[in-house]
């Protein structure tokens, strides 16, 4: 008994501490404030598809990572607080293997401005010109120039700058763009130029050849110049865009969504209201139907909520409207385990056992069903999480968290609290308090029947 | 015992409900939203009275966006559905939705490319299949110790049959609902279905667990109670808790539907239908089904 009383006090103290933590960090400025998803805080989500058709399969993951870094830099220039850039590969079940880039811009509601700011990023790559014989429909073969990707792309670029031609050969005073490669890019560039002397190494910008110089000799040192017929303004623009980040692969906008701040604020309000009302309804039901154990379960449920909310704040899990729905749903399910246990205890009481003994047996007998039920719910939430899109994952995360916390709360908190206060026997007021349903005399009346 | 004795009657009723649901899905069909088909959804709000839809349609016509559907929503909102819009078209649409004297404020804008949509649909089907198979395997494993008179695979298979029922009934309900309200199937609908899969099996497990417990005790003391009587006893012992556990979930779902965000309204509605279907199917269908199935197996063994 004393053991359970100490444990009960500990459980209560932990719950109160967690509750205090949740309450004290409610201010949005707090480092542990709820992280709100775009649908609640307002903002824009852009989904780009990366075209990997020109990239070797082995290099795709790298290219995607490089793409992400560059877009991140771009987004930061755009001036958004806490942007999020993620990459995603379409799942194995998709018809086509697709590579996506998901850009979350909280607070931004002008989709077009965001797309324009991100979309200016040029795609730069170097291609070797080779001639191949192509069979024409008439049967004769013709020679055709094709450009083969060399693997040297904008991702190896460390810097671009404007230069003006200084010698006769470089068209005096003509603006040119000087590219400086990083160490890896310099090595690649030297290798390509040394192996293909005499051939044309074309520089492609956004899929168009802008300069087609011929390689005269191997070029060490990792610099190259593009001498297209630029005006000074064009050269400066290109340099600026290249410095912001030349994309290793071309991207196209696939989906976009924007939520205005009013809709998000309303969704939070509604979610909060639904949560509070749902919680009160469940507590009322538990109190009216299960009386004392119902009260214990309600206290355990409050502790459960404090635990789940704290974990959401600490990890942190980004809350979305579907996530809030998952949370509210899990409140209803969290009492399930308690109901199973209480019904079981009731049965043992009917069989004439004392309150404490009935509680012990009730918990151990209810356990297999509780375990199996929770496992199947976890299976669902794991599969949901795998399905991927943010709206589904938001739900799956809070739901899974709720299922796990409900398991903990039912088999530890409710149990300890109940055992801490129940007497050995089952008489008088205690019998009324631990019985359930509409009649206070049910346990006694049923004892003989069994 | 009542339910086991009159199981044919209850089987007929659930069969009828199932037939109505399948009929609704076949004839009304599920209207797929842009999450699956690709396309755009623009929601705008007006400070004063919203303009006539015909005015707006006329203003939208020159943009040649293909088929555009305009709908009044809420008190002063308008929702526009069309094919996927480019950012430039989106700006033009917002402009067209703001005739003189009625400035539209954009509440939300969603544009989904067609390939994303088809991938989601494919993923959803795979996810449903994976959940059903995993749950069946888990139940077969969890009930491995009770293989008499029916093998643990039978429990798993009945659970799966019940799962199909529990998914088809709310889907049929939603098909009817969508037919009359113009609601569409979105990602949250799928989330609701998958949640039902995970949750509704709960009640079935509670009853099967009780059957499992009685069987184990019978084996120990070697009383040989008639299997159908044992199942009947298990049902009446667990009925109260099955109803009560569902009731708490329905209470919060009702709160979510009527006080929660409009975004999650149909989500809550589908879940309510699913939880109700899951509860009656476990009481009236799952456990009673054990009886004819066990009879079939014992006769085969002879």
Description:
The complex is a heterodimer of chains A (450) and B (302). Chain A has 450 residues and is an alpha+beta fold. Chain A folds into three domains: 2-31 and 260-447, Multidrug efflux transporter AcrB transmembrane domain (Multidrug efflux transporter AcrB transmembrane fold, Up-down Bundle); 38-122 and 253-257, GMP Synthetase, Chain A, domain 3; 124-246, Gyrase A, domain 2 (2-Layer Sandwich), CATH 3.30.1360. Chain A is built from twelve helices and eleven strands. Chain A has helices at 2-24, 38-41, 60-78, 111-119, 183-195, 232-244, 261-314, 321-350, 355-387, 390-421, 428-434, 442-447; strands spanning 43-50, 84-89, 99-106, 124-135, 141-153, 157-164, 175-181, 201-205, 208-211, 223-226, 251-259. In chain A, helix 7 crosses helix 10. Chain A is elongated. Chain B has helices at residues 2-5, 7-28, 34-37, 53-60, 87-96, 114-142, 152-181, 187-221, 227-259, 265-301, and strands at 39-46, 69-73, 77-82, 104-112. Chain B has a four-stranded antiparallel beta sheet with strand order 2-3-1-4. In chain B, strand 2 (69-73) and strand 3 form a beta hairpin. The longest helix of chain B has 37 residues, at 265-301. At the A-B interface, helix 4, strand 11, helix 7, helix 8 and helix 9 of A face helix 5, strand 4, helix 6, helix 8 and helix 9 of B.
Order of helices and strands of chain A: HHEHEEHEEEEHEEEHEHHHHHH
Give the overall shape of chain B, derived from the CA principal axes. elongated
Assign the CATH superfamily of the largest domain in chain A: Multidrug efflux transporter AcrB transmembrane domain
Radius of gyration of chain B: 25 Å
Low-confidence stretches of chain A: 438-450
Tell me which CATH architecture of the largest domain in chain B applies here: Up-down Bundle
Low-confidence parts of chain B lasting 5 or more residues at pLDDT below 50? none
What is the CATH class designation of the largest domain in chain A? Mainly Alpha
Largest sheet of chain A: 4 strands, antiparallel
> Residue share in helices of chain B?
over 70%
Classify the fold: give the CATH topology of the largest domain in chain A: Multidrug efflux transporter AcrB transmembrane fold
- Strand coverage percent of chain A: 15-25%
């Amino acid at each position: 008994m004393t053991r359970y009383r100490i444990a009960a006090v500990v459980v209560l103290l932990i719950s109160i501490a967690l509750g205090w933590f949740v309450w004290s960090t409610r201010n949005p400025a707090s480092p542990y404030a709820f992280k709100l998803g775009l649908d609640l805080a307002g903002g824009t989500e852009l989904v780009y598809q990366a075209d990997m058709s020109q990239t070797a399969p082995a290099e795709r993951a790298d290219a995607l990572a490089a793409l992400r870094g560059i877009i991140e830099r771009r987004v930061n220039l755009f001036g958004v607080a806490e942007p999020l850039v993620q990459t995603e590969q379409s799942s194995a079940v998709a018809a086509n293997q697709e590579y996506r880039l998901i850009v979350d811009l909280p607070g931004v509601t002008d989709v077009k401005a965001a797309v324009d700011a991100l979309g200016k990023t040029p795609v730069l790559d170097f291609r070797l010109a080779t001639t191949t014989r192509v069979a024409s429909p008439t049967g004769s073969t013709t020679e055709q120039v094709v450009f083969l990707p060399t693997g040297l792309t904008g991702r190896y670029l460390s810097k671009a700058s404007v230069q003006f031609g200084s010698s006769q050969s470089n068209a005096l005073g003509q603006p040119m763009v000087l590219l400086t490669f990083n160490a890896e890019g310099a090595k690649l560039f030297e290798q390509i130029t040394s192996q293909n002397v005499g051939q044309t190494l074309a520089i492609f910008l956004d899929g168009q050849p802008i300069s087609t110089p011929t390689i005269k000799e191997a070029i060490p040192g990792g610099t190259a110049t593009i001498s297209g017929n630029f005006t000074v303004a064009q050269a400066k623009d290109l340099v600026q865009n290249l410095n912001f980040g030349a994309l290793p692969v071309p991207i196209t906008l696939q989906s976009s969504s924007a939520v205005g701040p009013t809709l998000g604020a309303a969704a939070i309000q509604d979610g909060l209201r639904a949560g509070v009302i749902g919680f009160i309804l469940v507590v009322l039901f538990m109190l009216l139907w299960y009386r004392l154990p119902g009260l214990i379960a309600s206290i355990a449920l409050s502790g459960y909520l404090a635990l789940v909310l704290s974990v959401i704040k600490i990890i942190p899990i980004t809350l979305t409207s579907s996530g809030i729905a998952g949370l509210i749903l899990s409140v209803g399910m969290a009492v399930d385990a308690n109901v199973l246990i209480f019904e079981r205890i009731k049965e043992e009481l009917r069989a004439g056992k004392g309150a404490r003994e009935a509680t012990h047996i009730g918990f151990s007998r209810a356990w297999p069903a509780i375990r199996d039920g929770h496992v199947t719910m976890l299976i669902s939430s794991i599969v949901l999480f795998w399905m991927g899109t943010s709206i589904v994952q938001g739900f799956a995360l809070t739901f899974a968290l709720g299922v796990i916390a409900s398991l903990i709360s039912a088999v530890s908190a409710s149990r300890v609290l109940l055992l801490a206060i129940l007497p050995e026997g089952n008489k008088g007021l205690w019998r009324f308090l631990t019985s359930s349903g509409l009649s206070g005399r049910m346990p006694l009346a049923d004892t003989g029947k069994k | 015992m009542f339910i086991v004795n009159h199981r044919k009657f209850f089987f007929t009723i659930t069969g009828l409900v199932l037939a109505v649901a399948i009929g609704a899905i076949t004839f009304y069909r599920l209207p797929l939203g842009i999450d699956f088909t690709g396309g755009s959804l623009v929601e705008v709000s007006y400070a004063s009275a919203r303009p006539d839809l015909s005015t707006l349609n006329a203003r939208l016509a020159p943009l040649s966006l293909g088929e555009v559907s305009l709908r009044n929503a809420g008190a002063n909102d308008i929702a526009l559905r069309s094919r996927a819009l480019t950012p430039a078209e989106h700006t033009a649409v917002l402009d067209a939705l703001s005739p003189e004297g009625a400035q539209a404020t954009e509440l939300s804008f969603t544009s989904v490319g067609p390939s994303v949509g088809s991938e989601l649909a494919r993923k959803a089907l795979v996810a449903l299949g994976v959940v059903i198979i995993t749950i069946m395997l888990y139940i077969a494993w969890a009930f491995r110790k009770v293989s008499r008179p029916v093998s643990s695979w039978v429990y798993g298979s009945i659970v799966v049959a019940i799962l199909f029922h529990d998914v088809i009934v709310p889907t049929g309900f939603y098909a009817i609902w969508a037919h009359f309200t113009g609601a569409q199937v979105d990602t949250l609908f799928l989330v609701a279905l998958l949640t039902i899969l995970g949750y509704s099996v709960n009640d079935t497990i509670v009853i099967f667990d009780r059957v499992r417990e009685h069987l184990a005790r019978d084996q120990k003391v070697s009383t040989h109670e008639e299997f159908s009587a044992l199942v009947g006893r298990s049902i009446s012992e667990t009925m109260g808790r099955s109803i009560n556990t569902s009731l708490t979930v329905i209470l919060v779902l009702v709160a979510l539907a009527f006080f929660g965000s409009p975004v999650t309204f149909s989500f809550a509605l589908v879940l309510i239908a699913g939880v109700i279907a899951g509860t009656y199917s476990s009481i009236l269908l799952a456990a009673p089904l054990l009886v004819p199935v066990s009879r079939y197996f014992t006769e085969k063994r002879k």
